[in-house]
Task: structure prediction
Amino acid sequence: MYHQHRWTLEKLKARLALITPLAYKEKSPLPPFYYQELSGPTSKPDLEPDLSRWKIVPPNSNWGNWQTNFQLYTTFRVPEGWDSQKPIAIHLPLGGIEGDFSHPEALAYVDGVSYAACDRHHKEILIKPEWHDNRDHTLILHGWTGLGYTASGDPKMKLQMGEPQLAQIHSETRDFCALARVTLSTIENLAEDNPTKSLLLNAINDAFIHLDTSHPLGTNFYESVIPAYEILKTGIQKSGVPLDVIIHASGHAHLDVAWLWTLGQTRRKAERTFHNVIRYMEQFPNYHFSQSQPQLYQFIEEDQPQLLEKIQTLVAEGRWEPMGGMWVEADCNISGAESLARQFLLGRSYFTEKFGKNSDSPVLWLPDVFGYAWALPQLIKQAGLKYFMTIKIGWNQYNRLPYDTFLWQGIDGTQILTHFSTAKELGSNFASTYNSMANPQEALGTWNYFQQKELHNDLLMAYGFGDGGGGPTLEMLENLEIMNHFPALPQVQHSSVKKFFEAIEPVHASKMLPIWNGELYLEYHRGTYTSQAQMKKNNRKSEFLIHDVEFLASLASVLDKYYQYPKDEINAAWKTICLHQFHDILPGSSIGEVYSESNQAFQALTASLKKLQQHALDVIKNYYSGDILFINPTPFARNDPVLITDLNDVVFTKEDNNLPTQLTDKGILVDPGVLLPYSVTTIEYVKTKQDQIPEIAKITNLNFTLENNVIRIDFNQDGDIISIFDKEVGREILPAHAVANQFQIFEDRPLTYDAWDIDIYYDDKVDFSERAESISWVEFGPLRQTIELKRKIANSIYTQRISITKDSKQIDFDTTIDWQERYKLLKVAFPVDILAPVATYEIQWGNVQRNTHRNTSWDWARFETCAHKWVDLSEGNYGVSLLNDCKYGHDIHHNVMRLSLLRGPTVPDPLADLGIHQFKYSLLPHSNSWDEQTQAAAYALNDPIIITEGTKTLVDSSGSSKKSDFRQSLFSVSCPNVLIETIKHAEDGEGLIIRLFESQRKRGLVILKSFMPVQSAWETNLLEENQDPCLLVDHKIHLNIKPYEIKTLRIHLG
Result:
């Protein structure tokens, strides 16, 4: 009450603000900067500049524009008379405005050598003692001005240069201010009934009373600082004891590889951040830093190799912790199955190469991704890691998970020790953070927010400015030195992520940890399944293309011992793919420039992979006798028509039998019969003089009904599908009066994050397509029938070619749309006459069932979910699957299946998704369960048959013609529920690597064989380290596999 009446706390805060600037006891202005604008972030600094054309920037003047790369030049000299034993710093207030990332960031070069960085939170650079030499030293700042007010910036805004200066630091004043700052923050955050609160307030009040703050502040003040510090320090010691809680504080700089900036800016952000970490480690011997994402280290290796060498030294000393597991902190909703495996392989291999085996901490570190694939626990374990940490799940809209520390059980039963960091401000309504300020408020909040205090008292705090990098600050590090042992606070210790998990291992061993068996679904950012559709298409197409290249290159190497497997080129391609799977690139939440650059990168990637593919095909065709080779790059036998675009007037034969064909407006459709998994089939053809007439010219049916021997689809005059009738079982698939393939467009204005979110009320308003402008037949023949529709929805015009093929119930919708909407969400709906409380969604390395009802808040939250190539709704003996070739957002509510096609967000990219889009989806009615028929159709939709010219006649060494002996599958399995996902060369060149998985929650024996005898085989982990030898019977591999288990095999053929 006494201190309340006297406003003691408010007085002390004002006094602290008064004396904090006095830490600079002596000051000397720097000469004005010279300024030059640079063309981009990759422009190198001019370390020996000709200043004649540079602009001069006086103190307190405007300079530069937002989102501009620059360099500033000046010199500095320590004034005569300054104490050479005292620390001296360069203070760089370069200007800025309120708002994240709206301040210049620059790397400082002193005498031509990169040294440290400055930004909004790092304005002070401590200079080396050897520069206290009464000589001029050059200072060049190489950087970026920052964003400005918005993601797009305000070109009219300019920065205002402050008063850059040299300053001699009065260490005693700085130490007193740091201790006072921590004390006041602790007082403010302790409960009124905590006795330590009053004792601390008495102590700091006594210290400030002793401090001489009379005007003018000068010699008397500095002489009073040390006694005041001792009074405060003694008073604190008498005020109580720390809490019996250990917070493992690990310095960190969360760095978005791209977001509101491009990849080029990220390269600069990484080098700035890492330079400052090293400088602070020189000041604070106990400081420990943890950094994820090997991609960042590769940037440093390429741009600042000497900096990587310093990091290697710190890693060896145990002060710098490489961690994270993946190449980047990847999106785990959309990244494909093999992509997730490669994230681990690339990431851990890089750390091993640069820092030594097991130098990286065994934790998957994904603090900020927007969802977590249920296969992750198995991948974590197979990558040689033990732990998983995230924070983003705390952003859930509806439900908080009941645990912060637990065992996460994956789709296959693998359990991983998992922790959700609870670092947050005490009393904050916002979620936990990976950018902790390392202050008393967050130390108390971290413990207060933790839900399982009975289990353990060790917690984790990742501190340092992030998202745009930057890392820990001087103030944070000062705080940690003090909070290590401070009354009423948790004991905040310099530590590492690995040490934290090791500290809670005894709880794991005690069997007391709860188990979460199921998905970790983030109830937020659901729009990221759909935003920036071209990015998602690029990712999907590239994943399948590189899959095909690896298979073909492996086949070529098996056939031809002189063929050189392009390991380096393939790994470089995988790095490009994995880089663009970063959790703000692939989800669609970055600025437009990021996607302009990514489109160029994927165009180059595609060209490179196509060249590798053709090289492999050129080798393969020498081992097969035939005019044309049909190559099936999928794990399923296929029997779908193949379109050949560059031949006319020919008859195709296979094993001397004519093949069914159909002439279309785009080429000749050929029915090649059954194509085995991962196999090559040879086709011959002969020229014919018979005039061939497109089947469409023969059509006499004017009704718009697609029909073959197993299915019939009826359209109305508007272009809507009003009936889908399964002729094989005599069943109508649509409910009465329902319309299928219905485009639905919704107003899509989320509450906060535009590109990130779809909110549940989006379906308040819905509109539909206008009546078709035209309906016409474009194909009508024995192999395929196609109707083309042209329609409009809102301001967007689209064309669909709707097709069925012979003997198939699958209906394909090949769609092209000119998307011209803002704040809209486009879905396509298929109501089906199916009664099922759950639907099945394909995810990476398996599938998951999700409820179709909204019984609980957990169900309500899943109003939009992510799936990959297919979803399915089935009852006991019948079902319907919905397939796609590049889409991810889905919702299945009761009996209505919907696929999200496009969105129209404007932040951070005002032009997101505008323009032409082409995509394909399919509806597949089926008897019984979805099992392998749905999976096979989905793979076929995404990975077409590869067609290449063959070699007409093969000749052996005697000159005699011969037939190929390699017409069987390169690899195949005995069980349709087991899928061979990947065929590649081993990273070390020793044998082939086969990655397969069980896909239908079944266990049992599976036999893997090849067209060549298997000589030896080992099971390996994801890092391709041999684990156990495989059982071989008659040169075939016998494996026991469990539900959803991933197996990686090293195989030698002979």
Summary: The domain at 525-620 is CATH 1.20.1270.50 (Substrate Binding Domain Of Dnak; Chain:A; Domain 2). DSSP finds 18 helices and 60 strands in the chain.
